[in-house]
Each structure stands twice: as C-alpha cells, then as structure tokens.
Amino acid sequence: MPGKIARRALAGLAAVALGALCLAAPAFALPELTEDQRSTVKAVNEYFDSVKTMHGDFIQFGPNGERAEGKFYLARPGKIRFYYNPPAKIDIVADGKSVSVRDRKLATQDIWPLNETPLKFLLEEKVDLLGNDQVSSVTVEPDLVTIGIDDNSTFGSGRLTLIFDAKSTELKQWTVTDAQGLDTSVAIFNTTVNGPTNPKLFVIDYLANTRQKQGN
Questions:
Q1: Residue 195: pLDDT band with limits 50, 70, 90
Q2: Cβ distance 119 to 20 under 8 Å?
Q3: Residue 71 pLDDT > 90, yes or no?
Q4: What CATH code is carried by the domain that includes residue 162?
Q5: For this UniProt entry, which residues form the secretion signal (predicted)?
Q6: What is the pTM (predicted TM-score) of this model?
Q7: Which domain holds residue 85?
C-alpha cells in the first residue's frame, strides 16, 4: 500500500481533473441547471478539452495547516510532473503508464500503474461534465464554477471539489476531502497553457531502487 506521504501527495495533487472522470457513480443525480449555467459548464468543458500541455506554480495546504509549494508540468494524455520546492523532498512523475513518487532525500521511489491512482483523472483526453452522471454536483456563481466529484480509487474514497473562474473558465483551485473528512487544498497560478514542453520531464527511472539496494 502507498505510504502516508505518497498518499497525501498523490491525493492532494490529483484532483486537478483535466480529463475524463472515470469515477464511481454517486448515489444521487446531478441537479438541474439553467441554460446559463449549462452554457458556463459547457465552456469549462471546452477548456478542459483544449488543454494539451500546461505548466505553472502550485501551493498546497494540508489538513493540519501544513504548506508546500512547487511547480507542475503536464502533457496530455498520460504525462505529468510535480516538483515540490525545498524543504519538501517529493517528486511525482507520470510517464503515460506508471506514476513514480520519489523521495529526493532518501533516493527511493514508489511506483504504481497510472490507472490505479487518482492522477488518471488529470491525464485523459476527453471530458463530458454535463453528460457524465459520475459528476455529483455543479454550482455556477457569477465569478466561480464549482464542480464536485466522488472518487473511489486505490488511494481511498473521497470528494474532489474543483473551482474555476466563471469568465476565463480556467482552473484556479481544488480541494480533496478524503474518507476521514480531511481536506487538502491546492491553488495554481502563473500557468501557461499549450506551450512547449520537455519530454525529459516525464521520464521515470525504473532502475533507481535497484541501484540504491545494490549500493547499500
């Protein structure tokens, strides 16, 4: 099973759901939306689908007030990298098939299939927020669009709450509420969409743990 740090890192960051939401169906139906609300959600959906690459900065707040920050780099489908600034030592990489959570201080890493982690929500190509009955709530306000999603995965069940700017449709913040009711919130900023990206950012060193063991 994933370690505590890896669970929190993956759960907290994976809620950026910029892709098809392969979630467990909720026990209730999506509420009715007005035509204006549907139009706003459709614009958010189109923004989702238009994002092929993205990079920027993030700040993450844990349930006990702890704070971490860093940079993220995304290339859909399947690839992402989260780099936590010091003093944090975590580095998260998805290469299209696997996810690595690497501890830079200990030079160790844990690896799981991508489709068994919450990061799968981030990295698919298509999304249908209006037609997918797995989205559990949508709230449209003059300045914000909030979308709630129920998640059940290898890393535990919970709720993802995504917050978008209603005018620009850009993702601004998200909160993960885990099975224990604990919240992890993340804000992203200084983002660049559909700019150039470096494939070397998304390479996992699958032999790193073997070399570490051999060196001990």
A1: very high
A2: no
A3: yes
A4: 2.50.20.10
A5: 1-29
A6: 0.74
A7: 4-215
